[in-house]
Design a protein that fits this description.
Layout (H helix, E strand, L loop, with lengths): L1 H19 L1 H5 L12 H4 L25 E7 L4 H16 L4 E7 L7 H12 L5 E5 L5 E3 L5 H4 L2 E4 L4 E3 L19 H5 L2 E2 L1 H6 L15 H7 L4 E2 L2 E2 L3 E5 L5 E5 L3 E4 L3 H9 L2 H19 L6 H19 L4 H18 L6 H15 L14 H27 L13 E6 L4 E6 L2 E6 L11 E8 L2 E6 L7 H12 L8 H7 L4
Parallel strand pairs: 1-2, 1-12, 2-3, 3-5, 4-6, 15-17
Antiparallel strand pairs: 6-7, 8-9, 10-11, 13-14, 13-16, 14-15, 16-17
Helix pairs in contact: 1-12, 4-5, 10-12, 11-12, 11-13, 11-15, 13-14, 14-15
Length: 500
C-alpha cells in the first residue's frame, strides 16, 4: 500500500505540473536541443585585461571606469531565463554598471508571445545600454526571442553562428517597432550566417570587423555608444613599443549566470534530459513497486519522474505520447510480476518506441526530437532493464541461497503483507511475492501453505482448510495401519516443511 501511495502521489503531482502549462505550450515555439545545456561552460570568456587606471601616478585623480555586466543566456528561452534577464537589467540599473551584455546561445523559444513581448519591452525601455552577442562560434539564436536583436542598442555575432526563425514581428509598447528591414522575410522562416547577416544589415555592430569573435571584442564594440548624453567607455587605444596601436579593454567585466536551483530546472527543460528522466523515473518506480519495502529506488524514481514532468510542462510535448509511455510501463509491469519477459514485454517495447518518436512537437527549421544518442540510450536502456535486468533483480531480491524452488510446494510460511489477493509471505528466511485464489484474504501473521509456484510468485492458501501435503497424508496412513488415529502437532507441521 505504501508503494502504491508513492506511485499515485508521484503521478498526480507530475500530471498537475504537466497539465498546468499545457495551454501555454500550444502557443510556444521550440527548436533543436542538441546544444541546449552544453554551452554554459564553453561560453565562459577570458577575463579582459586589467583596467588602465592601475597605471595612474600618485597625486592624480583616480579615473574610475564603471563595469560592464555580462549575463550568459544558454538553452531554450523559458520563463526562468526571461525572469533572469529582467533581474539582470534591474541589477545593472540600480548598481554601478554602465552597460549590460547578453551572451546568447539559444536554439529556440518555449514561452508564449505575451511573455516574449514583455521581454522585448523590458529591453527596449531599459535605462542603460543593452548589448546582445550571439557567441561563441557555433552558437544559435532562434525563435521569437531573437527579435531582441531589433530592440537592443548594440548587437553582434561570432563567426560560425546563426540567427533566424523569428516568426511574425510582435507589437510592443515602445517608441520604435520591431523592424528588421529587408532581412525580415528571410528571418521569419529561415536563418542566416554572419556574412549574410552583415549584408542584410541585421546587426548594430559599430565596428568594421567581419564579426565579433569573443566577448572581449563585444565589450570593446560598446565603447563610444552614447545614450541620454552618457558615453560608454570600455576600451582605449594603446601604442606599443614598436609603434603599432591596439585597443585594450579598460572596463571591468562582471559575469553572471543562473543560480543552482534555477539552472537545475532550466536544464531539465531540455528534450533529452526530460525524456531520459521520464524513462528512468518510471522504471525505478516499477522496480520499487514489485519489491518489499520502500527504498532508495522509489525515492530516486519519484524524484526523476517529478523533474521529468517539470521539464515536459515547459517543452512542446504531445500529451498522448506521454500517456503511451505510461501504458508501456504498465505492460512491462505485467511480466515483471512473474519474472519472465513474455508477450507484454514486447507490447511495452513497441509502445515505448512509438511514444519516444512522437513525444515532442517539431518547429520549422529544427526538430525537438532527442538526439540519436539519447534515443538509443533511452530505448536500449529500457530493453535491457525489462528483458534482462528487472527479472534478475526481482528474483535476487526475493530469493535466498537456502531456499529451493519446486520442493517448496507444501512448505509453511507466515504472511508479512496481507495477501488480498496479492501480498508478501515469508517462507524460511526468504520473502516472496504471493497470491491466493481464495475468496477470503489472508491477513498479516496468518500461517499459510505453498500450493504452487508461478515464476517468482508463490500461490498460497491458508493453513486452515488447506489441502494436506502428501507427506502429511503418508504419516496419517502409517498411523492408521497401527490402529491409532493420526494427529498433527505444530512440531509435526514444522518437520514436514523441511527439505530432505
Amino acid at each position: 500500500m505504501r508503494r502504491l501511495a508513492i506511485a499515485m502521489l508521484t503521478a498526480a503531482a507530475g500530471l498537475t505540473m504537466f497539465a498546468g502549462s499545457a495551454a501555454a505550450n500550444d502557443s510556444s515555439a521550440a527548436a533543436n536541443d542538441s546544444s541546449a545545456a552544453a554551452n554554459d561552460h564553453s561560453a565562459t570568456p577570458v577575463t579582459p585585461s586589467a583596467p588602465a587606471q592601475d597605471d595612474e601616478t600618485e597625486g592624480q585623480p583616480v579615473d574610475v571606469v564603471a563595469p560592464v555586466d555580462v549575463l550568459q543566456v544558454s538553452g531554450f528561452i523559458d520563463d526562468i531565463l526571461v525572469d533572469e534577464i529582467g533581474n539582470a537589467i534591474e541589477r545593472a540599473e540600480s548598481g554601478d554598471a554602465q552597460a549590460l551584455i547578453l551572451q546568447v546561445n539559444s536554439d529556440g523559444t518555449v514561452v508564449d508571445d505575451q511573455t516574449v513581448t514583455r521581454l522585448l519591452e523590458d529591453v527596449a525601455s531599459a535605462q542603460i545600454p543593452i548589448g546582445i552577442w550571439v557567441g561563441p562560434s557555433g552558437s544559435r539564436f532562434y525563435g521569437p526571442a531573437a527579435q531582441l536583436l531589433s530592440v537592443a542598442d548594440v548587437t553582434g555575432m561570432a563567426p560560425g553562428s546563426r540567427v533566424g526563425y523569428i516568426g511574425v514581428p510582435l507589437s510592443i509598447d515602445a517608441p520604435s517597432p520591431i523592424d528588421f528591414g529587408i532581412a525580415e522575410d528571410t528571418l521569419r522562416n529561415g536563418s542566416v550566417a554572419l556574412s549574410e547577416a552583415r549584408a542584410l544589415d541585421i546587426f548594430k555592430q559599430r565596428i568594421d570587423d567581419e564579426g565579433i569573435p569573443t566577448i572581449a571584442n563585444m565589450v570593446q564594440a560598446m565603447d563610444g555608444y552614447e545614450e541620454d548624453g552618457v558615453v560608454i567607455r570600455t576600451a582605449e587605444a594603446v601604442v606599443t613599443d614598436d609603434g603599432n596601436s591596439r585597443f585594450d579593454t579598460v572596463a571591468p567585466v562582471r559575469f553572471s549566470k543562473l543560480s543552482l536551483i534555477d539552472q537545475l530546472f532550466h536544464t531539465v527543460a531540455s528534450p533529452p534530459v526530460a525524456y531520459l528522466l521520464l524513462l528512468t523515473g518510471l522504471a525505478l518506480l516499477i522496480f520499487e513497486f514489485f519489491t518489499a519495502g520502500v527504498g532508495l529506488a522509489g525515492v530516486v524514481g519519484a524524484t526523476c519522474t517529478l523533474l521529468a514532468f517539470s521539464g515536459l510542462s515547459v517543452l512542446p510535448t504531445r500529451s498522448w505520447a506521454v500517456v503511451i509511455i505510461g501504458i508501456a510501463m504498465l505492460a512491462f509491469a505485467i511480466d515483471v510480476q512473474v519474472g519472465i519477459p513474455r508477450f507484454w514485454t514486447g507490447v511495452g517495447m513497441f509502445l515505448t518506441v512509438v511514444g519516444t518518436w512522437f513525444l515532442f512537437r517539431s518547429i520549422p527549421g529544427a526538430s525537438m526530437r532527442p538526439s540519436w544518442v539519447a534515443l538509443i540510450t533511452g530505448v536500449g536502456g529500457i530493453a535491457l532493464t525489462f528483458v534482462v535486468g528487472m527479472p534478475n533483480m526481482v528474483r535476487t531480491r526475493f530469493a535466498t541461497p537456502t531456499i529451493g524452488r519446486e520442493w517448496m510446494i507444501g512448505e509453511l510460511g507466515t504472511v508479512i503483507d496481507d495477501v488480498n489477493p496479492d501480498g508478501v509471505v515469508q517462507v524460511g528466511e526468504g520473502r516472496w511475492r504471493a497470491r491466493t485464489n481464495r475468496a477470503t484474504p489472508v491477513v498479516t501473521g496468518d500461517p499459510v501453505r505453498v500450493a504452487a509456484i508461478d515464476g517468482i510468485t508463490l500461490e498460497v492458501e491458508p493453513l486452515e482448510g488447506a489441502a494436506r501435503d502428501y507427506r502429511d497424508m503418508r504419516g496419517g496412513n502409517d498411523g492408521a495401519a497401527d490402529g491409532a488415529e493420526p494427529t498433527e502437532t505444530p512440531a509435526d507441521l514444522s518437520a514436514s516443511s523441511s527439505p530432505d
